[in-house]
Specification:
This protein is 17% helix and 32% strand. By secondary structure, the chain is of the alpha/beta class. It has a 6-stranded antiparallel sheet, with helices on one face. β10 (197-203), α6 and β11 form a beta-alpha-beta unit. The radius of gyration is 20 Å and the shape is globular. The N and C termini lie far apart (45 Å).
């Protein structure tokens, strides 16, 4: 089967700091609010590609990451879907309870570490609010005439958002509310690797951990996922240790104590490193690694990217040896 060509994808997003207006707000499902964001002055928004997300800055200056789930061709509006998390850190409650149409939000992005690539066939697996980054992907696959299957799991049908939008894809979308069908049958979905198939998935950490385990025999790079919360890192035996970091551009050598993060030391030294989530999920602080072996603890880099040894997520990762050399 020939590789189908998708519409040109923006390979490098221009990350910007913007003040956008909430032009529309509506409930996409029980517990899920959709927000449409526009420039109050009518300016074009930065380009983005399926898989991109933005930071929404909270009143205290912290940030939360939300996937862009609208139409990449629409340069006038961005759309995000927000799940109300009663036990979360407060960002989703603020967006649900306090933000209304006409309000202004400070936004940073877009950023993309979940890029959508051309393939002969796709398997999309969404869990709950994890449907959001997959919406523009399935639309792109449909527009390209690609073969695909979309599995959408959730607690119950009324909590599964954007069903009106997914209706146009017909029976290629399979709804699997746990209250009716039970948990997703991942063994059936992933038991046999399919040549030329890319799997894209997003959802709760438990679902993604299960998919990783059941798809371990698939070809490297064929299963792509985005996490909303960090995976549990594998800690070194004996605990964290002190190490050095060399800043290649200046030759400075800094010490990272066992009880402090690499990001803390880089920020303290005044380096030009951007950070947002500080938990290894957003990818904003990915830095070029020139030498040394990273102790990867992030939830962003793929296995292939980790094996390449030329990137490190400095907010959570450390060093397996004595020194790292960074392109800073």
């Amino acid at each position: 089967m020939a590789l189908l060509e998708l519409e040109p994808i923006v390979e490098r997003q221009v990350e910007a700091d913007l003040e956008l207006e909430v032009s529309r707000r509506w409930l996409a499902a029980d517990g899920v609010v959709a927000l449409e964001l526009r420039s109050a002055e009518g300016h074009l928004l930065p380009e983005w590609a399926p898989g991109a997300h933005i930071d929404i800055l909270l009143p205290d200056g912290s940030a939360r990451q939300y996937s862009l789930c609208g139409d990449p061709a629409d340069r006038m509006a961005w759309r995000v879907g927000v799940l109300r998390e009663a036990e979360g850190r407060g960002g989703s409650r603020w967006l649900h309870d306090d933000i209304r149409a006409g309000d202004q939000l400070n936004v940073r992005g877009p950023r993309n570490h979940f890029s959508f690539d051309a393939a002969t066939d796709y398997l999309f697996i969404a869990g709950g609010i994890g449907v959001t980054p997959l919406l523009p992907m399935v639309a792109a696959a449909e527009a390209a005439g690609a073969s695909y299957r979309f599995i959408y799991g959730g607690r119950s049908l009324n909590t599964m958002g954007f069903q009106d939008e997914l209706a146009r894809f017909g029976d290629k979308v399979e709804y699997c509310p746990e209250s009716v069908t039970g948990i997703l049958d991942l063994d059936e979905l992933l038991s046999t690797p399919k040549p030329g198939t890319l799997v894209y998935t997003c959802g709760p950490g438990g679902l993604l951990d299960a998919i990783e385990a059941r798809a371990s025999h698939w070809p490297p790079g064929s299963v792509r996922m985005e996490r909303f919360s960090p995976r549990t890192p594998v800690r070194r035996e004996g605990g964290d240790t002190e190490f050095e970091v060399e800043l290649a551009r200046s030759g400075r050598i800094l010490t990272v104590p066992a009880d402090r993060s690499l990001l803390d030391i880089l920020e303290e030294a005044g380096t030009d490193v951007v950070s947002s989530c500080a938990e290894g999920t957003c990818g904003s602080c990915i830095t070029t690694l020139l030498a040394g072996e990273a102790d990867h603890r992030d939830s962003v880099l793929t296995g292939i990217e980790r094996a390449a040894g030329d990137q490190i997520v400095v907010c959570v990762s450390r060093c397996l040896g004595k020194r790292l050399t960074l392109d800073l």
